[in-house]
Each structure stands twice: as C-alpha cells, then as structure tokens.
From TrEMBL:
InterPro entries according to UniProt: GP_PDE_dom, PLC-like_Pdiesterase_TIM-brl
Pfam families per the UniProt record, alphabetical: GDPD
GO BP field: lipid metabolic process
Domain of life per record: Bacteria
Protein name: Glycerophosphoryl diester phosphodiesterase
Enzyme class: hydrolase
Ranges for domain GP-PDE: 32-319
Molecular function, one GO term: glycerophosphodiester phosphodiesterase activity
Keyword entries, A-Z: Hydrolase
EC number, as in UniProt: 3.1.4.46
Length: 333
C-alpha cells in the first residue's frame, strides 16, 4: 500500500508539473509595457509610511522638475516610453474630476481642506508644488512652479489624445463611477483613452457595470481572483474573478502563481485579462513599483504584460535593453 501511495503521489506531482510548467508553454508574443504610476514625479522615501504621512515632505533630492498628476508629467512619461499612465481623480462639487492624489490639500498645496469638497474653480488657484521639500523644510524647490497646474480629467483627455490612462478613484462614492460613465457616453472618443479603472470598490464596480468592455479592479476583486486561482488554478481552470479584468501581481509573490510566468500569462490572455506586474508587496497598498535595476529581476524574460513603475524615465529604457527586447520589438513592427 505504501508503494501504491508513493506511486500515486508521484503521478499527481507529475500531472501538476505538466499542467503548469512554463518549459512546455511558449511565451506570449510582444514586449513588456510600461505603466507609469502618477506620470513622472518626485519619488519619496517609503519607510514608515501611513495614511497620514505627507509624502511631499520626504521627497528625494529632485532629479527633474515634474510634479505628479500634471499634464506635463504625463506627457513626459509617454515620451519616456510609457504605454499607460496612472492618475488619481476626485469628483468636485462643481461636477468635475480633479486630477490630484491626496484626499486633502494641506500636504502638497498652499490650500487646505478636503479635495473632493473643494470646487474646481478654487483648486485651479492653488500651487500644487508648494509643500515639496527634500531637506526637512529648509528649502521648497517647487514653490511657485505648480500654480494652476492641477488639471481636470477632461483637460487630460484633450491635451493627450494619444494617451491611455488607468484611473484611480480615491473615494468610495458610487456617483464617481456613474459620472465617469456619463462623461464617456457623451464623449465616446475618450473611451479608447481609458485603459481601466481601480480604487474604491463602489465607483470602480459602478463604472464597470455601466461601461461595456471596460476592465478594472479593486482590493476585493484582486483577492478573489488570486485567492481562487491559488486554490485550483493548477488545474488550468481560470476563476471567473480573473476573467476580462486587470490582474495585479506583486513581484515577490508571482513565482507562487500556478504556471508563472508563461503558462499563467497564456491562461489570463485567453480569459481576456491583462497582467500588471507590481514591485514587492510588504503589507501596504498595491502601489509598489518596479523602480530599480534590482527590481527588474521580478520581470521574466519574454513578459508581455504591464510593468508598474514610479520611475518610467529609468525603467522604460532598461526594459528596452533587456535581451530579446529588440527582437520582440522588430517582430511587432
């Protein structure tokens, strides 16, 4: 009986291996694509961050003049090689989407109060570079440079008609999703610019309900997809929660996914989903990026999904120099 059990175990292991090894699966065609988080922006130290941390007060020594979520920073990201730019929105009392990260204005700007409670007409008067400092408040290198630079989502669509954007809802207001759906209904030419939506569950799910074919995710849908796939993905069955969506994969957990990288990618591609590869996850939110040469080790050779980065100006050229990238690019032309 012990021999039979041992043989049975070996057979099961062999079947699981055959179903999930990438050695027997060709890599998906195409190059890795860049998803630029907040455009090109001032990066900051992430140690000890919490929800109340003012990140503008802990930026690294500036290497460029771009401020996050501005049209200039998005254009620069696209010129650096970004295929998609992530941006953050708040629906204001005058029914416009302000493109700005923070829930409140006090950290980055010379204003105060809750972003979504402030009319866009007032937000347009603020200096969004006011609060940035890299030396503990001894100097503020961007004061005066961000005056009037907070855009509306409409302005972004008009200024960057060739851009594609991942829209982050910062609230849990369902009306934000409905308002975005109405905006796209009245301006169908902008629909192709929306790569996807994510963030608050209520607005994200409302947008996905009202805009056919749009992809998106929230924390719950991500956990449902990856959790169910971990449970029975070894069979090759893709859970419904992983179909026709955006699947975010933390780089340090990717190797635990059944079939990673090539067979997993093929399954998700067949299910109508796109993969977004993040940097290492360590218990915070899902915005850690592939931001250094060390982080590039998380990106498999032949990966053709989206690479989330806070440093598009650095990572896009490095990905372009990886072995095989030139061949993949030539095959796409």
């Amino acid at each position: 009986m012990k021999k039979i059990a041992a043989v049975a175990l070996v057979v099961v292991i062999a079947i699981v291996w055959l179903l999930n090894t990438s050695l027997l699966a060709p890599p998906p065609s195409g190059n890795a694509k860049i998803l630029a988080h907040r455009g090109i922006h001032q990066v900051f130290h992430s140690e000890g961050l919490d929800n109340d941390t003012c990140t503008a007060e802990r930026i690294e020594t500036p290497r460029h003049s771009y401020l996050e979520n501005t049209i200039a920073s998005m254009r620069a990201a696209m010129e650096s090689g970004a295929d998609v730019v992530e941006l953050d929105v708040h629906l204001t009392p005058d029914r416009q989407f302000a493109v700005f990260h923070d829930w409140t204005l006090d950290c980055r700007t010379d204003g105060s109060g809750v972003t979504q409670e402030t009319p866009m007409s007032e937000l347009k008067t603020l200096d969004i570079g006011y609060g940035y400092t890299a030396d503990g408040g001894k100097s503020f290198p961007f004061r005066g440079q961000g005056a009037g630079q907070m855009p509306t989502l409409t302005e972004v669509f008009k200024a960057l008609p060739e851009g594609r954007f991942l829209i982050n809802f910062k609230s849990e207001r369902r009306e934000e999703g409905a308002t975005l759906a109405v905006l796209l209904r009245f301006h169908p030419e902008w629909r192709k610019q929306v790569f996807g939506v994510y963030g608050g569950t209520a607005p994200t799910q409302e947008t996905l309900r009202l805009v056919p074919g749009l992809r998106g995710y929230d924390r719950q849908s991500t956990i449902a997809c990856l959790g169910r796939y971990a449970a029975y993905g070894w069979t090759g069955i893709v859970p419904d929660a992983c179909r026709d969506t955006l699947i975010i994969v933390p780089g340090n957990y990717a190797r635990f996914l059944w079939g990673w990288p090539d067979r997993f990618a093929a399954r998700m591609q067949a299910a109508g989903s796109e993969i977004i590869l993040l940097g290492p996850y360590s218990g915070g939110d899902f915005t850690s990026g592939i931001d250094s040469t060390d982080d590039l080790a998380f990106v498999p050779e032949g990966f053709s999904g989206y690479v989330w980065t806070n440093k598009a100006e650095t990572i896009a050229p490095l990905l372009g120099k990886r072995p095989g990238a030139a061949t993949d690019q030539a095959n796409r032309q």
